[in-house]
Specification:
The complex is a heterotrimer of chains A (244), B (277) and C (332). In chain A, 75% of the residues lie in helices and 0% in strands. Chain A has 10 helices and no strands. Chain B has 277 residues and is mostly helical. Helix content of chain B is 71%, strand content 0%. Chain B has 13 helices and no strands. Chain B has one domain. Chain C has a 6-stranded mixed beta sheet, with helices on both faces. A 4-stranded antiparallel beta sheet of chain C has the order 11-12-10-13, with helices on one face. In chain C, helix 4 packs parallel to helix 6 and helix 5 packs antiparallel against helix 6. The C terminus of chain C is likely disordered. Classes of the chains: A mainly alpha (244), B mainly alpha (277), C alpha/beta (332). Chains in contact: A-B, B-C.
């Protein structure tokens, strides 16, 4: 019962959240404001990708992220390190959660709806296949950033909330980066690569993706993945020498 | 029992000390509540297009800095605290103190508000650095940002009333913890309308008048939009009638939720003591 | 006027009789069914000012529910209860300022702050003048052997230090009635002794009444001339500590110094063998069969010496608790 009720609540809040995002977008674009060439229907794709990505990370990433800090706090990380399996892999692929499922489907639904019924001409079906690459890039970036920050809890046990802060900043991805002023655009491209997480996939689906941006995303994702790996190794060295 | 000034002071001192021990986490909670500054980017850009009458990029920057300030002042997490106290049984020990736990919760929040203050100032400074036009005005919209003194004072008072409003809405929902297990799951039902109707992501004044009228009857715009407008909007955009209406509405909603909360509190306590406290 | 008086104090919990799962919940929603559980049954209890009473009984016997009714946290289903002339469940500030409840497994102090901060809050909440409050803190700290513990965050203190500070906080307002639920739970022996002598001194100086539950018999024997035993919600015994032994120890211990070792099979005929180690044997014998058994032992065995004693009170109470399917958490 508790479980079902919570699932209904999660669905309602996902619906409300997406409804609110659409309301905010409508409020912005109901006048003649052009938003640097993004029409309402095109921007819907960005909202859809953001929602789907959020659903994916709630399902695959968030439950594991929370566990890392718990393991560190309870001191049970020691047992993880004793297992004959790569600790980062084990900590990253341990749990899935159903709470992200409503977002996943709502996001997907919005993308398909906007791409097939709202946009003139409708989006080329082949673009859905092309979308897979930038989408993989965006979930990888999400994972690597989250893992980097979770690693910090090895030093600062109380900072279980740093990933909340990251999640809040990533909300910028509900809008195409072109909607932001220059300073923001630079920040969301080079510091916190939100641009590669929602805008680039949306561009690819809309058939106006640029090769350099997709490639840039791949490079950033790979770099962050390596950084997360190295940082974890470094943190473990610190952890084992500090606890023994 | 209502607390004496001495109890209030003792609570505040203890809880401020407590919250400063959490300052690192609180710093990250401040980052987690910078959505107004993100929205500032979107609306400064939109305002520059001139598509929104009376809401240029300078207005947008000032408005969202105002929203950010009152967002920091009106943070409310009582539902999580109360849920924990009921589930863990800590509420029982509080009930043996001769002071209603309500004051404890309010002053816990006050302690956090003060701990946030330096971090908030840091982010306001950063915003003004990115958009110095908010202070000095721009070519299209000249003039420094210098709201009348009484409006600033009124905005601060309203800001605190706004906190009480948000607190009582949340505390009223928290009372359901006496009957159901995970009451914090319900908080989202309150958070969503707050997010979209408070002016946090959409400046209410840019909406069609009929829609504005509907939203202004709900409690939410008075939490952020109203105090932010008092310091950010040009005086003619916030005439005396609108201010009076705002004050009446905010006090009305606080009274309504406080009465509802008290009624639920009494019934809840009866249930709690029947269940074995 | 007695400090505490209850008449026919009764508490019945209504428990939802609900099958697990979604279907069970829906069924329950449509047709509510409840079971009634009697936690406390018609308890009559009177405690005079200055009295220290040990409140004994197995887990789940109704001790905590009774304490919660006496402190006003739980509303009685039936019966009358008065503490210092007040009905506790009205939770009047006037009464709350004269009582205290200490629970060994729960703490009231703010976890991440030093106890001193919580003490300042309590001083204000109970309206004790700041100077007077600090004087009391000094006196209590002296008695309990507390010093820099008062200025270190609670979370850094050991369990014993924490409980000592907890007592300072709970007694700062000089309550007239103390409800102590397992105040020494999990403490090391030194801390237990310190807490015990502190409570004794407080009781003597303030003439406060104390109702104390503890699994540690040493607490009871050191502090409580009077004992109340509750079992399955009803009072079984109310009287002196020694009386408990008479009432609940049907067995006496017979110690034999034998001229030569005797086989178990032979000893068995006189009583239950507690120990049989060479020339020393200990038997447990029913009170009423004692004379007969001793006579037969002396006639049939070559006994050098024979002593009859009551078993230690710890064992008596432990047995009593064991019969109430308790885990028997007693210190030797």
């Amino acid at each position: 019962m508790e479980y079902r009720a919570n699932f209904v609540l999660a669905t309602i809040s996902s619906l409300a959240s997406m409804g609110g995002a659409l309301f905010a977008l409508w409020a912005l674009l109901r006048t003649e404001y052009a938003m640097n060439g993004w029409s309402f229907n095109q921007a819907l794709i960005v909202v859809g990708i953001y929602t789907m990505l959020d659903g994916l990370q709630q399902t695959l990433l968030a439950p594991n992220r929370q566990q890392i800090s718990e393991f560190v706090r309870n001191g049970t990380l020691d047992f993880v390190l004793l297992k004959p399996i790569d600790s980062q892999f084990w900590l990253s692929a341990r749990k899935v959660s159903v709470w992200g499922v409503p977002n996943l489907f709502l996001g997907l639904g919005l993308i398909v709806y906007a791409a097939s019924f709202r946009l003139e001409p409708a989006v080329d079906a082949a673009n859905y296949v092309r979308l897979l690459v930038p989408l993989a890039v965006s979930i990888t970036i999400y994972y690597a950033l989250g893992y980097l920050l979770s690693t910090l809890t090895i030093w600062f046990t109380k900072l279980a909330n740093v990933t909340h802060a990251m999640h809040a900043l990533l909300e910028a991805g509900r809008y195409p980066v072109a909607a932001y002023p220059g300073a923001y655009r630079a920040f969301f491209t080079f510091v916190l690569p939100v641009a590669f997480m929602t805008t680039v996939p949306a561009d690819v689906l809309l058939g106006r993706g640029e090769f350099t941006w997709v490639l840039g995303g791949l490079v950033i994702a790979a770099a962050l993945l390596v950084a997360a790996r190295l940082f974890w190794r470094y943190a473990l060295r610190f952890y084992t020498s500090a606890s023994s | 029992m209502t607390p004496t000034p001495r109890i209030t002071k003792a609570y505040f001192n203890a809880f401020y000390a407590l919250m400063t021990t959490y300052r690192a986490e609180i710093f990250f909670w401040v980052i987690a509540t910078t959505l107004p500054l993100i929205m500032m980017g979107i609306w400064v850009q939109a305002g520059a297009s001139g598509a929104f009458e009376g809401f240029g990029s300078v207005d947008a920057a000032r408005y969202f800095i105002g929203v950010f300030i009152f967002r920091q002042l009106t943070i409310c997490w009582v539902i999580y605290e109360f849920e924990y106290d009921v589930v863990s049984g800590r509420l029982s020990s509080m009930l043996l103190h001769p002071v209603n736990p309500l004051w404890r919760y309010i002053l816990l929040h006050a302690g956090e508000q003060f701990t946030r203050l330096p971090f908030s100032i840091l982010f306001i400074g950063l915003s003004l650095f990115i958009f110095p036009e908010a202070l000095w005005g721009s070519g299209e919209q000249p003039g420094t940002w210098l709201p009348q003194g009484w409006r600033v004072l009124l905005a601060l008072a309203c800001g605190y009333l706004a906190f009480l409003l948000r607190f009582f809405i949340s505390y009223t929902i928290s009372m359901l913890a006496f009957w159901i297990e995970r009451v914090s799951a319900l908080e989202n039902l309150n958070y969503m309308p707050y997010l979209f109707l408070s002016g946090l992501v959409v400046p209410i004044q840019t909406l069609p008048p009929a829609l504005q009228e509907v939203i202004l009857w709900t409690p939410y715009p008075y939490i952020l939009w109203f105090p932010a407008q008092l310091i950010a909007a040009p005086p003619e955009a916030m005439p005396a009638e609108l201010i009076a209406r705002g004050l009446l509405t905010i006090v009305g909603w606080i009274t309504l939720f406080a009465i509802l909360q008290q009624a639920l509190w009494r019934r809840g306590l009866r249930h709690y003591s029947a269940m074995g406290a | 006027m007695p400090a505490i008086r209850t008449q026919g104090l009764t508490k019945t919990y209504r428990v939802a009789d609900k099958k697990p799962g979604f279907v069970g919940t829906v069924k329950h929603f449509i047709k509510r069914r409840h079971r009634e559980i009697q936690a406390v049954k018609a308890v009559d209890l009177t405690i005079e000012p200055g009295e220290v009473v040990g409140f004994l009984g197995p887990n789940g016997a109704g001790k905590t529910t009774t304490l919660k009714m006496l402190t006003g946290l739980v509303h009685p289903t039936a019966g009358a209860v008065s503490v210092l002339g007040h009905e506790p469940f009205k939770r009047k500030a006037e009464l709350l300022k004269q009582i205290t409840l200490v629970m060994g497994n729960k703490q009231q102090m703010i976890w991440d702050l030093p106890p001193m901060d919580s003490l300042h809050v309590n001083a204000a909440v109970y309206g004790i003048e700041e100077k007077e409050a600090m004087r009391r803190v000094e006196v209590f700290a002296e008695l309990l052997g507390l010093d820099e513990e008062l200025t270190q965050p609670v979370r850094k203190l050991s369990l014993g230090q924490r409980m000592k500070c907890e007592l300072v906080a709970a007694l700062l307002h000089h309550p007239k009635v103390l409800f102590l639920d397992e105040p020494t739970l999990g403490l090391d022996l030194n801390a237990q002794t310190a807490v015990r002598s502190f409570l004794k001194q407080y009781n003597e100086e303030q003439q406060a009444s104390i109702l104390l539950t503890s699994h540690y018999m040493a607490d009871i024997t050191a502090l409580c001339p009077r004992v109340v035993v509750i079992h399955e919600g009803a009072l079984l015994y109310d009287g002196s500590l020694e009386g408990v032994v008479q009432r609940f120890a049907p067995l006496r211990e017979v110690k034999l110094d034998l001229a030569a070792p005797v086989e178990d099979a032979v000893l068995n005929r006189f009583g239950e063998i507690e120990a049989n180690e060479g020339r020393v044997a200990r038997l447990l014998v029913q009170r009423e069969a004692l004379t007969d058994a001793v006579g037969r032992v002396l006639a049939e065995l070559d006994v050098e010496d024979l002593t009859v004693t009551d078993p230690p009170i710890e064992d008596v109470i432990a047995r009593l608790f064991d019969s109430g399917n308790n885990k028997g958490e007693t210190t030797p």
